[in-house]
Amino acid sequence: MKRIIAVFLMICLVFAFVACSSSGNKTDTTDTKNDTADTEVAVDTKESETSDTEDTASVPDTEEGKDKVEYVPFDYENNDLSEYVKLGQYENLTVHSSYVPLTDEEFDVIINSLLEQYSTASEITDRAAASGDTVIANFAGYIDDEFVENTQAEDATIVITESSGYIPGFAEAFIGHEIGEDFSFDIVFPEDYRNSDLAGVTVTFKCKINKIVGDKQVPTIEQFVKDNTTFENTEDFLREYRNYYDMQSYYDDRNSMFAELWPQVTEGAELIKYPENSVEDLFEFSKQVYADAAKTYEVDYDTYLSDYLKITEDDLYARCESYIKEDLVLYSVAKELDALLTKEEYEEAAMGYAKNAGLNSIEEFMDVYGYTEHDLKSSIIWTNVMIELVERSNVVQNEVE
After folding, report:
1. Ramachandran area for residue 88 (φ above 0: left; ψ -120 to 50: alpha; else beta)
2. How far, rounded to the nearest angstrom, does the alpha carbon of residue 396 sit from its chain's CA centroid?
3. Where are the domains of the chain?
4. Which residues contact 305 (CB under 8 A, 6 or more apart)?
């Protein structure tokens, strides 16, 4: 499917959140079976397909003095498209939805996860490290007083539990030791350790605890809202935050319906002929884009196609044909639904895209994302068309497992 850039203007919550960060030390004392990764939820305000397509929106810089192929799209809006494409069925199609509103239980999980990210822990200074504590420590491994590569860390965070992520017995060896104390212990690496040079080997670790941290203190939702947001009360925050997550689910589902519906519309349309030179012009433009891209990888054009894109020039030409057909179908349906844009409607919607991306103008938005006016206008029209087509479809609700 052709990539259509469709940006939804979602409700944006402005939080004065304190930035969270985490750090760790990767050494040869970690147990890969227990490795975990911190994740962040990123709000994607762009509905886009990432299938194999050519991006005709931007052209890499070419060598000075070399002629550039300028691509001018066919004027789909002001030409009669009936001589090029015959629409098939685009109403009363079947599409599936999985959207269900967020439940109270699901929202509780989201809030608890959020509060966990802002938890704090008290620093312990009056006793030795104990089971369950978190220690910030330096350590280095030695065999017969010779340092072992990849067994050293400074200010490593070690949770003293059996599931610490370190090799068995390593974290527990810090129990009973105090801040600033220099101590050492021997530990035998597992026989099946990933580094065969250390498997079954006894290593002496020289250590020092820099800090001991006790149990985590998770803030209440009231305290979190007061300290980390601009909301005046907890109720407003919870309502908007829930709405934010619910809308995410809604838009994800709508994207899925669009992805299911659009191929039905395009595949049901009959192509009569292409506008003169439209495919050839796009093909030449696409070849230039990929030739320039090949230079950034320091390979030739043919190698870039075969090794990086896994396509041939015949495949590229076929994609250009598909691209043009989809534009023909899109603008034909848009005319049937009276969904073309006036200049004012385009500028209003495009400016909304720019603001949603934190930019100040349509031109800046197109420059940053590499879009042409044709691509941006087509994106807005496509979104409007798809919303209308979903309304005219038979929406089947999927069963929730």
Report:
1. beta
2. 28
3. 6-109+227-397, 120-217
4. 290, 311, 312, 313, 316
Q: Which residues pair with 188 in a beta bridge?
A: 202
Q: What is the pLDDT of residue 216?
A: 75
Closest CA to 375 of 23, 77, 73: 73
Model-level pTM?
Answer: 0.61
Query: In 272-342, at which residue ranges do the beta strands (DSSP E only) sit?
Result: none
List, in order, residues 6 or more apart from 357 with CB less than 8 Å away. 7, 45, 365, 368, 369
Which of helix, strand or coil describes residue 307?
Answer: helix
Neighbouring residues of 124: CB distance < 8 A, sequence distance ≥ 6: 133, 212, 213, 214
What stretches of 28-181 adopt beta strand conformation (E)? 46-47, 85-86, 94-97, 120-124, 134-143, 146-147, 153-159
Question: What are the average pLDDT values for consecutive 10-residue runs of the chain, which has 401 residues?
Answer: 36 30 44 36 33 38 57 95 97 95 94 91 88 92 92 92 88 95 94 90 95 86 94 95 92 95 96 96 94 94 95 96 96 97 95 92 92 92 96 90 60
CATH entry 3.40.30.10 includes domain 120-217: no
What's the DSSP call for residue 350?
H
Q: What is d(CA 120, CA 214) in angstroms, rounded to the nearest whole number?
A: 9
What tokens does 373 get? 């006016």
Q: How many CB atoms lie within 10 A of CB 139?
A: 24
Tokens linked to 359: 């930019």
